[in-house]
Design the sequence.
């Protein structure tokens, strides 16, 4: 197998693993399930991932990296800090089937028991906080935001979004997407000295 073929096969396995994980959950996904869904041998799965734990951690990272690629596109753009902030808040909101959020919630839960997954989850989770803090810092520097603690504000805003997103993704009709958006904007406006209208 050429290196390029191996990379393509690895990418296909990770995509398949993500599909299986969303359907079965991290705790109930076996390497045999991924091999069957991908139409390959279990030995090939173990060739790419020495352990089930490594497979799950890399599949989780693969899924979350798709979200982070969209976040990078926002933070690296030439938009103003306020526009970047609005876009980040929109990216964070669960939409449709909320597949991405299913992976995040499952990943956090399994991280309590799987050290390899915890390391990946922590690294990827911190990226959101760091990028949000960087946008807040830039907004303070240009006078758009008023905030004495960008890191703390990023953590508090993210914590509210995480908590509401879990409710929205897990519990049908407990809160609406409209409520999610309103409450997140309210907390963000208070943290950054903005009017609610600034975040519409």
Sequence:
């Amino acid at each position: 197998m050429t290196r390029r073929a191996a990379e393509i096969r690895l990418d296909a396995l990770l995509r398949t693993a993500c599909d299986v994980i969303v359907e079965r959950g991290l705790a109930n996904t076996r390497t045999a399930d991924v091999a069957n869904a991908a139409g390959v041998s279990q030995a090939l799965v173990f060739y790419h991932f020495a352990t089930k734990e490594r497979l799950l951690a890399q599949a989780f990272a693969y899924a979350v990296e798709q979200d982070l690629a969209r976040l990078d596109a926002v933070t690296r753009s030439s938009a103003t800090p306020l526009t970047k902030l609005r876009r980040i808040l929109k990216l964070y909101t669960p939409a449709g089937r909320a597949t991405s959020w299913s992976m995040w919630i499952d990943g956090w839960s399994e991280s309590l028991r799987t050290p390899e997954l915890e390391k990946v989850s922590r690294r990827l989770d911190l990226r959101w906080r760091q990028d949000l803090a960087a946008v807040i810092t830039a907004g303070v520097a240009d006078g758009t935001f008023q905030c004495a603690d960008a890191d703390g504000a990023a953590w508090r805003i993210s914590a509210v979004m995480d908590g509401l997103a879990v409710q929205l993704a897990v519990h049908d009709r407990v809160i609406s997407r409209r409520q999610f958006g309103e409450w997140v904007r309210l907390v963000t406006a208070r943290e950054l000295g903005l009017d609610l209208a600034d975040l519409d």
In short: The CA atoms of residues 12 and 147 lie 44 Å apart. DSSP finds nine helices and no strands in the chain.
